[in-house]
Amino acid sequence: MARDVLVLNGPNLNLLGTREPGVYGAATLADVEASCRQKADALGLSLDFRQTNHEGVLIDWIHEAGRRGAGVVINPGAYTHTSIALHDAIKGTGVPLIEVHLSNVHARETFRHHSYVSPVASGVIVGLGPQGYLLALDAIAAILSK
Ligand code: DQA
After folding, report:
1. Any ligand 1 atom below 6 A from CB of 39
2. Active-site residue numbers?
3. 10 Å Cβ neighbour count for 3?
4. Minimum CA distance residue for ligand 1 atom 9
5. How many structural domains is the chain composed of?
6. d(CA 26, CA 129)
7. Looking at residue 36, what is its pLDDT?
8. Distance from the alpha carbon of residue 9 to the mean position of ligand 1, in angstroms
9. Could you say which DSSP state residue 19 is in?
10. Model pLDDT, residue 2
């Protein structure tokens, strides 16, 4: 059975490619999805790639991952810095999860330095652009095969 991974993207990530390209680069979310699909195929992972602008939807998807026994790669966007509910969902389901940020949040505004997700993540990758998603898939594949 293929190991199951959900790649979840939070608010405003649907704007990638046109949103602050100096910060987030030129790749669109469709480009990121295409490279994730290639990587998942190579790793033998079954991939669901999703984006939402709604906090509760992200939480429902974390619960779904828990029920499915799936791993999660998540870029929670700005909810990273605000969402205790997301923290609780990850903690409550115990899903293995890698947090990814395209930009180096630690080199940006101070309000981006704190993450509610990091304390309940298996690992965190920041500042490497779309490659961060591919490294996160490597990491989640290794965790799921343990
Ligand atoms: C982001 C960083 C967040 O601070 C920001 O709100 C985003 C994108 C990133 O991928 O670098 O929406 O998660």
Report:
1. no
2. 24, 101
3. 18
4. 101
5. 1
6. 10
7. 98
8. 10
9. S
10. 62
